[in-house]
Amino acid sequence: MQRYGLIGWPIGHSFSKRFFTEKFEREGIQDARYDLFPLENIAGLPGLLAQNPALRGLNVTIPHKQAVLPFLDELDETALAVGAVNCIKVLDNHKLIGYNTDTIGFERSLDTAAWETWKKEACTALVLGTGGASKAVAYVLRKYGIPFRFVSRNPRSEQEISYQTLASSLPDSTHLQLIINTTPVGTFPNVAEMPPVPSNLFKQGMYVYDLVYNPAETLLLREAKSHGCTVKNGLSMLELQAEANWEIWQGNH
Q1: 110-233: what fold?
Q2: Residue 11, pLDDT score
Q3: Which of 17, 23, 65, 120 is catalytic?
Q4: Domain ranges, ordered by start, for the chain
Q5: How many Å apart are CA 67 and CA 2, to the nearest integer?
Q6: What angle do CA 83, 116, 141 make, to 5 degrees?
Q7: Global pTM value
Q8: I want to staple 39 with a disulfide (CB 3.0 to 4.6 A). Which of 7, 82, 83, 115 is the partner?
Q9: Is residue 241 a contact partner of residue 86, using CB atoms and an 8 Å limit?
Q10: The CATH homologous superfamily of the domain defined by 2-100+237-249
């Protein structure tokens, strides 16, 4: 029995177990199972692997996408460039290889024409949050040459601005067409919360993408939609990265 699973904290709300369990049933894959491994501290990873020798692959979620890096033996090219990992392949010799398929999920979840339009029209973007998911989003934005700024509660670099100074930091927001929330704010059960983005930042025709998928429409998306924005949640991104993970685990990558 090949085993796969998810590490993170907390992970009770995770979509991954349901996705893979249904996939295995639908496709008649009988020699595989997917489990949740709540891991509060990444230092517990070696022990987890020792206790579960049948593990062949792991997904990595908040808050370990960056903290897991020192525990890996190798990173693929994209994961190295991103600086964060959401997929681990466990080889027979116990070697751990890290990948980032969040980049695949994020890029493919949007139409190619949309990317090309934003690039052609010299649009800019805001990335809410500075965690592991934000690094994957930034990787894709750089690929298409879309300028962006990170928004953080505690800015630590020149590329990061605070929510408090958001309005004054963007004196010319006419080219701002894309806002991506990479934070968990608004995730069930905290559905009455949203990142503190000033409502006057939203405008007709803007695209607001929330990587949160539960609930399907977060408070952030409802607020953006009320101002004429096009909105999208993170479900399709999750599905696409999950399929990419499976391809990696099966050696088809």
Answers
A1: Rossmann fold (3.40.50)
A2: 86
A3: 65
A4: 2-100+237-249, 110-233
A5: 26
A6: 15
A7: 0.93
A8: 7
A9: yes
A10: Leucine Dehydrogenase, chain A, domain 1 (3.40.50.10860)
- pLDDT (tens digit, 9 = 90+) per residue, 180-234? 999 999 999 999 999 999 988 999 999 999 999 999 999 999 999 999 999 999 9
Q: Do domains 2-100+237-249 and 110-233 have the same CATH topology?
A: yes
Q: What is the dihedral of CA 206, 212, 217, 223, to 10 degrees?
A: -40
pLDDT of amino acid 166: 87
The 3-class SS string of 239-251 reads HHHHHHHHHHHCC
pLDDT digits (tens, 9 = 90+) for 95-130: 999 999 999 999 999 999 999 999 999 899 999 999
**Tens of pLDDT along 74-103?**
999 999 999 999 999 999 988 999 999 999
Active site residue 120: no
Average pLDDT value for the chain: 94
Q: What's residue 252's pLDDT?
A: 61
Three-state secondary structure of the chain: CEEEEEEECCCCCCCHHHHHHHHHHHCCCCCEEEEEEECCCHHHHHHHHHHCCCEEEEEECCCCCCCCHHHCCEECHHHHHHCCCCEEEECCCCCEEEECCHHHHHHHCCCHHHHHHHHHCCCEEEEECCCHHHHHHHHHHHHCCCCEEEEECCCCCCCEEECCCHHHHCCCCCCEEEEEECCCCCCCCCCCCCCCCCHHHCCCCCEEEECCCCCCCCHHHHHHHHCCCEEECCHHHHHHHHHHHHHHHCCCC
Q: How many Cβ atoms are within 10 Å of 180's Cβ, its own excluded?
A: 25
Q: What is the pLDDT of residue 175?
A: 86
Pair of tokens at residue 46: 């070696």
